[in-house]
Design goal:
- The structure is a homotrimer.
- Chain A has about 140 residues and is an alpha+beta fold.
- Chain A is about 35% helix and about 50% strand.
- The first copy, chain A, contains four helices and six strands, in the order ααββαββββα.
- The first copy, chain A, has a six-stranded mixed β-sheet with strand order 2-1-6-5-4-3.
- In chain A, a hairpin with a 2-residue loop joins strand 1 (about 35-40) and strand 2 (about 45-50).
- Chain A is globular, with a radius of gyration of 15 Å.
- The interface between B and C is medium-sized, with 31 and 25 residues.
């Protein structure tokens, strides 16, 4: 697979993964992670495994719904570093926007994210994600 | 055409299409739609055909100029689903930013957009666009 | 090199270039420009050459650190126009976000940027960059 084809595959993977999250589909979101995936929010919050990712995500979705905003995730400025056909490291900026019922939107947190993606049976999954919020790293 | 080549072509198409809009070129923007294109803003606002798209766009451009802001459209997190070489469905996030004369910028509306792109004589055009603002869909 | 491969190479180049800038590495950022690069902020501010770019960047980084924010650059809606294998023109939107220690982030300036990229010994560099802030161009 060429670098450009891999890039396209990864962009599609992330667009679908985060559409699940922003659309409130915690199970669909969790299914894009490996069974034993490690999800870290620096500093210090680490959750492990698809069931815990699903449960945590579900709680976050409920919290956002209760706040009556629509949240979206935007990824950009992505560096893609394949170690092999089946293990790819990515690093990118992530930003959230939140739209409120009165109209208009605001930018939420901005983060620098490091992922490890793995391929099983031709399908990409996130094996590890480390999110460093800019307020923390500053 | 490979998936990566199609992706690049579509990214270029959108960058040029929206540069027309943000640059105040209503006719240029309308020319990137098919003659009978359907442009829907959920809920309920539907305009049809290149001349109506041009006229509506022109009114919007005037309104934004009168507000003395510079508006930009940003697309991201795009899913591309080709049905054939000549008909491609896309879905993406769209965000506007507005810069005011005193400096700084603010995020405007965030939307989820579904497009149908068609190819005639090798050239992509938007045959249909459906914009769902996040305040509406929440 | 196909258009899609060139696009991917350019996206990687920009992600790494701006990671240097946002990470506070003025020398690393300057090294992504040609020795005699011309960097213009419209209207009227022109700096020339890698040492001057490094010094100016360093002053900006210090200013941002003193303001206690974390700044990020986001590029999008990019048009890529190769004149040859070794000279490529790009035009894109650029946006900054600034995160403050109390959490949350705000959008800073939005600009339309024109670059000339050149390739020497297989490596891309920025030979010229012209930044037009939207408050200026409006």
């Amino acid at each position: 697979m060429s670098a450009a084809e891999l890039n396209f595959e990864i962009q599609q993977f992330y667009a679908r993964q985060m559409r699940c999250l922003d659309g409130g589909d915690a199970a669909g979101f969790a299914s894009t992670f490996t069974a034993d995936a490690v999800f870290t929010h620096e500093p210090g919050e680490v959750i492990t495994g698809r069931p815990v990712i699903a449960a945590t995500t579900n709680a976050n979705i409920t919290r956002i719904r209760d706040a009556k905003v629509t949240r979206r995730h935007w990824f950009g400025m992505m560096v893609i570093e394949p170690e092999s056909e089946d293990l790819i490291r990515t690093q990118y900026l992530a930003m959230t926007t939140s739209s409120n019922p009165d109209g208009g939107a605001t930018v939420g947190a901005v983060s620098l994210v490091d992922d490890v993606l793995v391929r099983h049976d031709g399908q990409l999954s996130t094996a590890s994600r480390t999110v460093r919020g800019d307020r923390v790293t500053r």
